[in-house]
Amino acid sequence: MALEFYGKDPECPGNNCPAVFRDEETGDFYFQGETLVDPTKLAQMSEDSGLSDSESIVKLPARMAEMIVEACRAGAVIR
Predict the structure, then answer these.
(1) Where are the alpha helices (H) located in 1-64, listed in sequence order?
(2) What CA dihedral angle connects 24, 25, 28 and 29, to 10 degrees?
(3) Predicted confidence (pLDDT) per residue in 20-76, tens digit
(4) Which element (helix H / strand E) includes 74?
(5) Closest by alpha carbon to 21, among 74, 71, 69?
(6) CB contact at 8 A, 12 and 61
(7) Which of 3, 45, 55, 58 could form a cystine bridge with 33, CB 3.0-4.6 A?
């Protein structure tokens, strides 16, 4: 599996930063970020989509939207 790196939070001062990756083979996305633990937000999200034991919610800063969009465009399938 070859992961393509799209960037990390430009305002993060160290190496443990939120980041965006895409699998070059499958087009799947990977997000590194702060794991959401707020019970109110988790409960609200569970109303729309349940959360299995193997899943987690990851928070990325809004300022990373451009790199997320860039990763999406790279994985776009034109038909």
Answers:
(1) 39-48
(2) -20
(3) 999 999 889 999 999 999 999 999 998 999 888 899 999 999 999 999 999 998 866
(4) helix 65-74
(5) 71
(6) no
(7) 58
Q: Which residues contact 50 (CB under 8 A, 6 or more apart)?
A: none
Residue 51 main-chain phi, psi, to 5 deg: -120, 115
Of 1, 2, 20, 5, which Cα lies nearest the Cα of 61? 20
Other C-beta atoms within 10 Å of 36: how many? 14
Distance separating alpha carbons of residues 15 and 29, to the nearest angstrom: 20
What pLDDT is stored for residue 51 in this prediction? 87
Residue with tokens 């993060």: 12
